[in-house]
Specification:
By secondary structure, the protein is of the alpha+beta class. The chain has two domains: about 1-45; about 50-108, no CATH class. Helices cover about 55% and strands about 15% of the residues. The protein has three helices and four strands. The chain has helices spanning about 5-45, 50-60, 100-105, and strands at about 70, 75-80, 85-90, 95. A two-stranded antiparallel sheet has the order 1-2. A hairpin with a 2-residue loop joins strand 3 and strand 4. It is elongated. The N and C termini lie far apart (about 65 Å). The model has no long low-confidence stretch (mean pLDDT about 90). The structure holds zinc ion.
Length: about 110
């Protein structure tokens, strides 16, 4: 390989790497922007976080408890196994989850 070819290959490799990093950063930024947007939304509605909003909705009865659920610290739990029915993943994200007995029921 001639010197100029090596130079070209190295430059190309560096360029590809930079592109990959830029794309990864872009993905992170988009995720970050989405998070910021969600948090902005929550704040506009007067909540500090998704957990805060969820708790308020349960407290006000805007979300009804299922017959087999009870509230603890304003969040729903399963009466049978005591498992959580909600997970707070991020300050801006709360997702429903299944407790142990719901999972067992599903697997049947
Ligand atoms: Zn359960």
């Amino acid at each position: 390989m001639r010197m100029s070819e090596i130079g070209f290959t190295t430059a190309f490799a560096i360029k590809m790497k930079v592109t990959a990093i830029q794309q990864k950063e872009k993905g992170k930024m988009e995720l970050g922007n989405l998070a910021l947007k969600k948090i902005e939304e929550l704040k506009r509605e007067g909540y500090k976080s998704a957990e805060d909003k969820l708790k308020a909705e349960y407290r006000k009865g805007e979300i009804q408890l299922e017959e087999d659920e009870f509230l603890k610290d304003d969040l729903p739990y399963c009466k049978k196994c005591g498992g959580k029915r909600y997970y707070i993943i991020e300050p801006y994200m709360a997702v429903p989850t299944t407790c142990k007995c719901q999972q067992e029921e599903k697997e049947k």
